[in-house]
Amino acid sequence: MTSSRNSIRWSTTDKTSESLVSGFTFYFFLYFVIDFFIRFSARFPAYGVIRPTLIEVLILLVLLFSQKDKFKYKMDDPVFKGFFVLVGYIIISIPFVEWPGSVIRTNLDPFVKASVFLFFVALFVDTERRLKVFLFIFVGCQVFRVLEPLYLNVTSGYWGSSTYLSSKEFANRLAGAPADVINPNELGFVIATAVPFLHYLLWPLGWKSKALYLLLMPLLLYALILTMSRGGFIALLVVAFFVFKESKKKFRLIVVGILAAILAFSVMTPVQKERYLSLIDRDAEGGASAEGRIRGMVNEFKLGMTRPIFGHGLGTTPEAKVHKLGSRQASHNLYAEVLIELGVVGFLIFMAFLSKIIKKLFFVRSSFSKLNMDSLDFYARLNKALITLFWMYAVYSINYWGLSQYYWYLFAGLVIAFSNLALKNVSGKSYDSSSVESCHYDSKFRLANKVRNRSY
């Protein structure tokens, strides 16, 4: 009986998988991605008057619901289920948080705008070609966001931000371009996001891809130096660790790493050197601010425990800090932010949501390894990039907020889309994503499964 039920489920999923979202929907989604990251509304004021991002989201939601029968089966994915639990908890807990009015009036909107990326990416990226096109657009936008301010810096002396020194002077730091909204730390985050994709998707290919990789990487790393972002530097170290861990040519990587470090240190100004050295030397310039950041994180966790069950409410971290810590500075720690806003219960739900993402990536990796998939395969390389990116995000979130930011939700949607296509590529049929967890169960009882299958 079990075998026949499984065959029915597989055949149903196979039929559903052939129904793709329309080409117009996908390409309009790509336009939304470009508009979101490149910020046409800031570059063309007349265009910004109509609030294009909001209109684009509404159009995409209409297109999503009009084609909902094409991807109903995808909603059974464990990552989707984890997100639905999180949303359900946020809604149910509103009457019990400290500032429910702030949640309803102002803070639900940013969360919704960020979380739609989960649905758009997971449901609209439904073929290998569309996955590659989306990656090209997404990574290309991140690279453009780095190269634009770097170009302005070289050609016109643009910086975009500065930091206060103990000598009562200001040191310039490279931030996003004038049309962008990212500060130096966020620019460092963008750089660290692009690097894993470039390394795993470009370097293993032909000489043209290698040449592009060798052209872009020095520019990105030089831009990171100019940001003086210690968080971005740590994020890059996380990426470097996983690249080193996966590499079969570790000695060569060590040599390249040493040469890159020497070259990077040689082009730094004294202030930039002091800034990065402050990570390990508290007496260096910037060491006091690093210690202050750590104290701030500790205080944020203490603040979260003042309302440990339901929290203060979604998006109320600045409000809670004003009333209880006397400062409105945004949270610099995602985990503290979640604790402050959602309480311990919400914190555990959010961490469960993240755990489902990495478990899915591990499951795909194990599926590939059992079939002896070569590391040069596109899906195997992308899986390595996504695992690296997950841990980079997890570490960087210690220094960055994100509950109502896009990056975790876009990443989750990308993991869903990638895993569906990767498993389909492995088996020659579209996996029912709800079966991911059951596959682990089946693998533990192989003998019983063989006996049961023979009986039918």
From TrEMBL:
InterPro entries, sorted: O-antigen_ligase-rel_domated, WaaL-like
Cell compartments where the protein resides: Membrane
Record carries keyword Transmembrane helix: yes
GO cellular component, one term: membrane
Keywords: Membrane, Transmembrane, Transmembrane helix
Sequence ranges assigned to domain O-antigen ligase-related in this UniProt record: 219-351
Any one Pfam family match given in the protein's UniProt record, by short name: Wzy_C
Membrane-spanning intervals of the chain: 20-38, 44-66, 78-96, 108-126, 211-244, 251-271, 334-355, 376-394, 406-423
Name the UniProt record assigns to this protein: Putative membrane protein of ExoQ family, involved in exopolysaccharide production
Protein source organism: Marinobacter nauticus
